Amino acid sequence: MSLDISDRSRHNARILTTAQALGGASPAIIVSLGGLVGQQLASHPSLVTLPVSIFNLGLAIGTLPAAWIMKRHGRRAGYMTGGILGVVSGLIAAAGIFEQMFVVFCLGTLIAGFYASYVQSYRFAVADGAPEDIKPRLISWVMVGGLFAAIIGPQTVIWTRDIVAWAPFAGSFVAQSVLALLALPVIWRLRPTTSTPVSSPSTRQPAFSTNQSNASAKVPAGRPLKEIAAQPKFILAVTAGVVSYSLMSFVMTAAPIAMVGCGHTVGEAALGIQWHVLAMFAPSFFTGRLIQRFGVNAVTAFGLFLLAISGVVGLSGLDVAHFWIALILLGVGWNFGFIGATTMVTACHRPEERNRVQALNDFLVFGSVAISSFSSGKLLSVAGWEIINLMMFPAVGLVFALMIWQHLRAPRAG
């Protein structure tokens, strides 16, 4: 018995939410432990945060080949490939710890970034072929998986970090591989949401395919990418995504180091990050409904406003409470800003254009995240925590300026 599009979309949302919970635990493990392993293995203090930065770099450069694989072979085949990369990445990172080889450990986090480039696209995949009226809620459902990942990742670290006494944290990266392995049978249950001719087996598409071409029907190639990228609504969507994610990564990377530098304990810093990650994903239970009720621009703008407020709190004091409140506001602001930006992107392309447009968006977003991650630790050591927070305001102001510009030109465009 076949399911209609809405039912299949909801089925895939449940599958992708589960996969997000498993795959999203990988970044949490790397962010929690990357710097600590770096302190053990790096030859210079300036390289301590390199594993996390390398992870973000892998995420950025992995978006383009991931999009090509999914366009050629379908979403499910692409996500199975990503899951295999996740398994391999944890084993290589663990091997780097076992052998006390910093380069090997960084190679493991790089490949974990490739895996994350697939996981990050789950939020787009859930919208493929879905009715317009439920897209924001489906995207939010998948992001809820990140809330469970925020629990699974840190708890995995707690349970496994000391399993191998002579190689601290190696067990956590083996566990990271196990989580990626568990995601494979989940991903296999994805169902297609695109209509395809059923004239013969030879023309059937891969399950959950994004390759719309077939032997019996010619599908338009879509507009040139340059034309799509020149749309004001695409420029706003990408800028909102870049600012939301980059600021979050920029401050989150620096915050634990700043807390320890201010005399707070490693445990207090770790707890602050855990509250931050929970705040990133907990609002996903209702973000989609807020977008439906108030509009995507309003919710995105409110998210960016919260990012700015987190900067104000960060500048107002150096107590544990100041850091924790700033990190919580940073997480909630990221959620509204990033889910809003993701929803904007889905309105910028036609079905046949989605792979290229989504890949371009993620390349720009996560490329900027990689740059912010690389620069955060260095800027903190040179300029201090105050400058980290001050730099948030012009970035937020840029997005507000683009929103105002788009609002002012809308009557003329309409």
From TrEMBL:
<feature type="transmembrane region" description="Helical">
    <location>
        <begin position="21"/>
        <end position="42"/>
    </location>
</feature>
<feature type="transmembrane region" description="Helical">
    <location>
        <begin position="269"/>
        <end position="287"/>
    </location>
</feature>
<feature type="compositionally biased region" description="Low complexity">
    <location>
        <begin position="194"/>
        <end position="203"/>
    </location>
</feature>
<keyword id="KW-0472">Membrane</keyword>
<dbReference type="Pfam" id="PF07690">
    <property type="entry name" value="MFS_1"/>
</dbReference>
<feature type="transmembrane region" description="Helical">
    <location>
        <begin position="165"/>
        <end position="188"/>
    </location>
</feature>
<keyword id="KW-1133">Transmembrane helix</keyword>
<feature type="transmembrane region" description="Helical">
    <location>
        <begin position="48"/>
        <end position="70"/>
    </location>
</feature>
<feature type="transmembrane region" description="Helical">
    <location>
        <begin position="294"/>
        <end position="315"/>
    </location>
</feature>
<dbReference type="InterPro" id="IPR020846">
    <property type="entry name" value="MFS_dom"/>
</dbReference>
<keyword id="KW-0812">Transmembrane</keyword>
<feature type="transmembrane region" description="Helical">
    <location>
        <begin position="138"/>
        <end position="159"/>
    </location>
</feature>
<feature type="transmembrane region" description="Helical">
    <location>
        <begin position="77"/>
        <end position="95"/>
    </location>
</feature>
<feature type="transmembrane region" description="Helical">
    <location>
        <begin position="234"/>
        <end position="257"/>
    </location>
</feature>
<feature type="region of interest" description="Disordered">
    <location>
        <begin position="194"/>
        <end position="219"/>
    </location>
</feature>
<feature type="transmembrane region" description="Helical">
    <location>
        <begin position="321"/>
        <end position="347"/>
    </location>
</feature>
<protein>
    <submittedName>
        <fullName>MFS transporter</fullName>
    </submittedName>
</protein>
<dbReference type="InterPro" id="IPR011701">
    <property type="entry name" value="MFS"/>
</dbReference>
<feature type="transmembrane region" description="Helical">
    <location>
        <begin position="359"/>
        <end position="375"/>
    </location>
</feature>
<feature type="compositionally biased region" description="Polar residues">
    <location>
        <begin position="204"/>
        <end position="216"/>
    </location>
</feature>
<feature type="transmembrane region" description="Helical">
    <location>
        <begin position="387"/>
        <end position="405"/>
    </location>
</feature>
<feature type="domain" description="Major facilitator superfamily (MFS) profile">
    <location>
        <begin position="233"/>
        <end position="414"/>
    </location>
</feature>
<dbReference type="InterPro" id="IPR036259">
    <property type="entry name" value="MFS_trans_sf"/>
</dbReference>
<dbReference type="GO" id="GO:0022857">
    <property type="term" value="F:transmembrane transporter activity"/>
</dbReference>
<feature type="transmembrane region" description="Helical">
    <location>
        <begin position="101"/>
        <end position="118"/>
    </location>
</feature>
